[in-house]
Specification:
By secondary structure, the protein is mostly helical. The chain contains 23 helices and ten strands. The chain has three domains: 187 residues, no CATH class; 71 residues, Orthogonal Bundle (Arc Repressor Mutant, subunit A), CATH 1.10.10; 169 residues, no CATH class. A hairpin with a 3-residue loop joins strand 8 and strand 9.
Length: 456
């Protein structure tokens, strides 16, 4: 593992990695090729340049979790069994007799043995020499060095993602490549703590593997004989400590989130790294919206507030909200609503916070205030890709704009120097069910293109 210094530390984890460093995992020759392919895959998805931040445990905690990997325990045992100068086949694999002995010793299937063997080579726990023999380096796992052990874990992660290909190779099934496993990690990464539905992952895998086939017969035959491949993959990832599953949902562990974040960074997607919720600043807290539902955000707010004096929390949140993005500012208002006393009067001169202050102080909401709240509220509906929700248009419009005056308020909305005025007005113009309201929004959106926003 090498460490490339970043511009500034985002969290305690980054600080431990030296100056806000990002991991650059060295997977070896095969792993590098896989990493290059994954980077190309990321770039092909058209993801936004920036995704919502993630928070992770400390480096020591991540390394401790990595050392619990069942896969790497088996790989270590395999390396110890290989010893020195073990004869291999011409293809640099274990001989038939040795493979049978190793599988029996480890209590695993031939497919699991192949995964262990490939992982041992990828992590240098086993080194193949030019003379067709193998030598073991069992001391490489674990080393006790946190960065080194996480790097080894990451190499194992990439091998697990390729393990379905090993299964197909052993079974002699050429029609199924199982080369899209990395694509299944992305929706789980975007789903964060709430996880992704296993049924949805199974459908994605089936679609990717059968799109080039005339029918699904090969897939169905595989499932009948070997079980659903996604179920198999998730079980292996769970043994490695990369995912957690229940009956319906699969979610990435912090270790897998760490590695996926680094792969996405290599693909040109910026994903800030934050400390755990209890250690976040108010500025940190207001960056987490995007791809999280209301229940998650409410729980996060409660966790953050539980560690702070209410008066201090209110002051910090108001200060952070003044410079926050629209979605963060809207989130701040929901967190502040949980506090008994908030000095709203102090921010009545701030154009971005005045609408919230007037509401909280019971003052009459002016049309511009209503429109600003509408824009912030719809901005807060953005998903992990930064796309705002069409479903939020009618709901947020109904609770923010004065009934019967929607067209009047929208007619002047273009004058607001809101950073997302054009985007929000366009969304309303496209998706609001009332044709007159939608038309007023489209007209305002056209005018808003020439207005400079308050901030970027």
């Amino acid at each position: 593992m090498t460490v490339d210094p970043g511009s500034e530390p985002d969290s305690d984890l980054d600080s431990e990695l030296d100056l806000g460093a990002d991991f650059s995992i060295d997977f070896g020759d095969e792993g590098d090729e896989y990493a290059d392919e994954f980077t190309e895959f990321i770039q092909s998805l058209g993801l936004p340049d920036r995704l919502p931040p993630v928070w992770l445990p400390s480096l020591a905690q991540l390394a401790a979790a990595a050392r619990e990997s069942v896969l790497l325990r088996r790989v270590g045992e395999l390396a110890a069994w290989v010893g020195e100068r073990r004869e291999l086949t011409d293809e640099c694999d274990l001989t038939g007799a040795d493979a049978a002995e190793a599988a029996e010793r480890l209590g695993i299937t031939p497919g699991e043995l192949l995964l262990c063997w490939e992982t041992a080579i990828a992590t240098d726990l086993v080194v193949v020499s030019d003379d067709g023999t193998a030598d073991a380096n069992p001391d490489l796992w674990p080393t006790g060095d946190d960065e080194e052990d996480i790097g080894t874990w990451a190499a194992g992660f990439t091998q697990v993602l390729q393990s379905l290909y090993f299964d197909a190779e052993l079974a002699g099934v050429e029609e199924l490549a199982f080369d899209g496993a990395a694509a299944l990690m992305l929706p789980m990464f975007l789903a964060r703590e709430r996880g992704e539905q296993i049924a949805a992952l199974q459908e994605v895998a089936r679609s990717m593997e059968t799109e080039h086939l005339e029918d699904d017969a090969v897939w169905d035959a595989w499932v009948a004989e070997h079980g659903d491949p996604v179920t198999t993959l998730l079980a292996r990832l769970a043994e490695h400590g990369a995912v957690e599953t229940d009956e319906e949902t699969a979610r990435l562990t912090p270790l897998a989130m760490l590695i996926m974040r680094e792969e996405l960074l290599d693909g040109g997607v910026d994903i800030p790294l934050l400390p755990p919720p209890t250690e976040m600043t108010a500025e940190n807290l207001l960056t987490v919206v995007g791809g999280r539902d209301d229940a998650e955000l409410a729980e996060l707010a409660d966790t953050w507030l539980a560690t702070r004096d209410p008066e201090t929390a209110a002051t910090e949140l108001l200060s952070a909200a003044a410079d926050a993005a629209p979605a963060g500012r809207f989130y701040a208002s929901t967190v502040l609503a949980k506090l008994p006393v908030v000095p709203w009067a102090k921010v009545l001169d701030d154009p971005a916070l005045r609408p919230y202050a007037r509401d909280a102080l019971g003052e009459t909401r002016e049309p511009a205030d209503a429109m600003w709240l509408l824009m912030d509220g719809i901005s807060a509906s953005a998903d992990g890709f930064g796309e705002m929700s069409p479903e939020a248009v009618e709901m947020v419009t109904a609770v923010t704009l004065p009934v019967g005056r929607e067209q009047e308020v929208l007619a002047d909305a273009w004058r607001l120097r809101h950073p997302l005025a054009h985007e929000v007005l366009t969304l309303i113009g496209t998706h609001h069910p009332d044709k007159k309201i939608a038309k007023a929004a489209r007209t305002a959106a056209h005018k808003a293109q020439s207005v400079s926003p308050v901030n970027d």
